[in-house]
Amino acid sequence: MKKENLKWIEANEIKSKKVRLKVNSNCNFSCSYCHKEGGKSSVVKPNKEFINFSRQLSNLGFFEVHLTGGEPTLNPYLIDICKILHNTGQRVSLTTNGSFKSKLLGNLQDNGVADIHFSFNSRNNRYLQEHSKSKLKIYENIIGIQETNIIESVRINLNTFVNLLVHGYYSKQDLQSVYEFCKINNVNLRILTSLVNREVSLLTINEFIQENGFTELSKAEKLSSTRITLIDRNDYKIVIKDVSPETRLNGYCNDCTINCREGFYGIRAEHDGEKFVFRLCLDRKDGKEIILPQKLYNLINN
Predict the structure, then answer these.
(1) What's the CA gap between 215 and 59, in Å, rounded?
(2) pTM surpassing 0.90?
(3) What's the number of domains the chain is made of?
(4) Which residues neighbour 1 within 8 Å (Cβ) at sequence distance 6 or greater?
(5) Domain containing 125 — which CATH number?
(6) What is the b/e burial string over 205-221, where b = at least 16 CB atoms within 10 angstroms of the residue's CB?
(7) If 0-12 CB within 10 Å is exposed, 13-18 middle and 19+ buried, where does residue 188 land?
(8) Which of 169, 182, 247, 294 is least surrounded by Cβ atoms within 10 Å, i.e. has the fewest?
(9) How far apart are CA 302 and CA 298, in angstroms?
(10) CA atoms within 13 A on the CB side of 79
(11) Residue 241 to residue 229: CA distance in whole angstroms
(12) Mean pLDDT of all residues in 164-184
């Protein structure tokens, strides 16, 4: 990417109240497009160390924790993790592929989860087989489970979102089908551009918008993305999230030579097997991608 196209931000601009916490690395899917939050990490456990870390997040200025993985619902301690975060004042949300037993939804809600994001890119079992390379055998059943859980999540009044990642032109039919499912079932739909094939995914999304008669309601420039809210002919709203790979963090990205996929996106946390650390980059592997809590505090408060 040409230097003149980069968007440089200062550290004091990243005082986000939200952190993404990777609670495990394992997943029952094997999606080729998944960035896995940057690498392999240990399973987070609801022990004294985690209680202290949860309190530390508040001291660092974070008041919302978004749980990721891997597939976070495969962490056997997930409910206790949510409860601890909630009890220490955090707003808890998570992203899941939705292939879990429906009774988990009520348990998540009862233990502090406010928002749930379903990664749901297609209702086509052949697509799931080809592009997700799922380790599960009966693809039709997976899609049925996902749809059942999405509908149940709406029914019990969890803030429910479907995140659909548009990889390229071939996912146009999948985009249309998921849009119709979300519209019928009153589910919030967020359409995400691809980090790998951004220009093609933007083309696909624009054609979808035109064909369905969407009108733009608002456009917001965030730290590392653009959010566009649109409404269709029947007053159903969707959000387009276009991650800006041009964003760079001054004082951190200056000496990096990697043509990274994501640019600077935000703050991630994980357990490296010995301690909790923060990750600032998906692609950097020179040791500077991981920083300790005190260094993060100094970085964003100077």
Answers:
(1) 42
(2) yes
(3) 1
(4) 245, 246, 259
(5) 3.20.20.70
(6) beebbeebebeeeeeee
(7) middle
(8) 294
(9) 6
(10) 10
(11) 9
(12) 88
